[in-house]
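Dear colleague,

Following up on yesterday's call, I've attached the two folding results inline so they're easy to grep. Please treat them as preliminary; we haven't cross-checked anything against experimental data yet. The first protein's sequence and structure tokens come first.
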Amino acid sequence: MHPQARLGRVARSSVRLCALVSFVACDRVDSRESEAAFAGDVIATSAEVGGAYSILPLDSGSFAVASDPQTGLVMVHDARGSGSQAIGRIGQGPGEYQFAWELERKADSILIFDATGRVLVFDSQRRFVRQFDSAIRSGFGTMTMRHDTLIFSAAIRDRERFGFPLHVVSPEGAYVRSFGAEDRSISRIGEALLVAKATDSSVWLARSHRYELEHWHIDGRLLSRVRVDRDYFPPREPTRSKPLEQERPLTNIQDIGVIPGVGLSVLLTRARSDWVGSGNTDETADHSHGLGKETTAKSPSLGSRLQWVEQVIEVIDPEDGRLIASHRLGSESFFVGLREDAAIGVREDRDGIERAVFMKVRSIPSTRRER
């Protein structure tokens, strides 16, 4: 999942608590490869998530949000988003954080990553267990691996770690190693990095501007690479005269995930063919809904952004990139991340309040592995 998703501003209002909508979408992303689509259930909740950076699914449909737009606290909501419980407190003492920018889960524990570099661990009952200072303080995402090792995805400028997108940190917070690049001469500053856990000792890595995924072992070995050829997603690289963030938004990878026993899921956000924009960064910035960067004061509302973008989830074969199935997401929600067989997003209600929404994958055609 891409964890740093700034979901926008929010105002307080009332809304119907929960709606469950079942649908089957049959959208051909590339008719030369597959017409298969998968079915999913969209679950809208009442939880306000405007300004949140991370939404973490938990057991029984509950989920945690960092941070609550009203209090700044990490909140756990029930499946409907109504009942809620705070985790920890705002402050600088034990069990306290100043700004929670990321959440991660390890077995029954919840890890809160504070902007100060502090990592706090809470048990399944939301009780504080321990905390430590991490050598890596921020990035595009984190995940827990075997033996409680942490991996951060971040672009760091110092000599030892320059050019590496992934960084290993011990359970005590000490820096261990960096990896994830064969060519360190390429700066990763400004790249949006997407990471998904493959096993307890390996991860999938992608960059938002090219449809290529790499499978890395935490010891630094590149295990495999899959390049996906799509007419609508030509490879792009930043240049000095035209950085990626200043290009007209075409197609970008929003997030990647792993569906166990099926394949890799890729959340794509692309501008519609009739998209118009002036190229002014104040007017066109943050079409990813704040993914990995701050929303400017002039950024358009969620509703206006959804008029000009469309989103598709593709499930691909990790061996050769073959399209297994696809699903075009509805225009009423904007999805920001993937977690195994679920997509996480936000929906604007009739009063302009942004609420958490989830799409649970219900079925994928059994013919997906035919050659």
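Below is the second protein, in the same order (sequence, then structure):
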Amino acid sequence: MNSNKKKWIELIMFLLLFLLLLTGTNYIVDPGNQFHYFYDDLTEAILNGDSVQILSNNSDEREICKLLIEQMPKDVDCVALGPSLALTIQQDMTGEESFYNLAMSAADYYDFMATAGLMEANGVKPERIIICFDSRLFDEEVIAGDSRHDKLMDYALYMEGVLKGQEMSVPDGTTTGIQRDYSQLFSVSYFQYAVEFLKQNGFGAAFGPRWQVVGEDCTESRYLADYSIQYGAGQEAVTEEAVVEHARTYWMEANVTPGAHMSEEKKENFELLIQYYRAQGVEVDLYLCPFAPSLWDRISGEQYPILPEMEAYANELAEQYGVRVIGSYDPTVVGVTDADYYDCRHLRHSAMETYFDFTE
């Protein structure tokens, strides 16, 4: 065998071994849960009144939300909808006997409509709805830049049709189940993510359970029986200085587009939904989560006109339809400080209880 042929064989063998290591690690460790499904059992535990901890780094909150709505009681006192800013609203804050938090990370207009559509399709009738009134409801550029809403899009379009009086067929539910992104098998960045996960959690974590039921003594972040989140000791230890630094480097454009105004189409559809719920006697609360003061100082000028537009619109809805407005984007109105935050957007549990009244 000549030396050139031998080198080619060695190169091919190396590439095959590298590919096997890459894909095998990405599939087995799977830190983002691209290839593992455990949501049926997890949802059953939540509906049985258990708190659960996700042991891997990520979970498909849209899948869990869908399963919860399909299986939760049809008559419920209160639900919360919106992005992760609303995930810390817990049952004891609402004063209700039955409450489910149906918020999800980075939820936008279509996720919100899809959640409403899922409740409509499954006959879930809350007496009160708390809506986190976030810019992702009305910022067209932000909405267009995020594909996570695609998973439940059928339900969003279904709800839009219902609101406009169109004859709509209930979606067949085929969006359920894991949506595997097989490109991640060959992703070097996902491999690096997997290696970091192993460093932090040990090799046993790759082969162990992806979630577990936990008790009240758990000090890690977990989901409670109402599917609200309870942040753990690590988040509680975040300092005010860390929040200020996070505000300094925060990528505002991921959530609010500079110069953007409220989408008239999304605004019209949102108002149709408010009319729809109020006609059914459903109480509606609009929760305006304040920005951390150190972040507000960066953005409260004319660069982000959608924020004052939304706050004014929330107050118009309150006057016209009798909805309740809770909070303000302006932290000076609410009275919060940087010390009240886990990061420059997410309020501590203690602050949620101190500054806001979510009871009816």
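For the second protein, one point worth flagging: The chain is about 45% helix and 10% strand.

Best wishes,
A.L.
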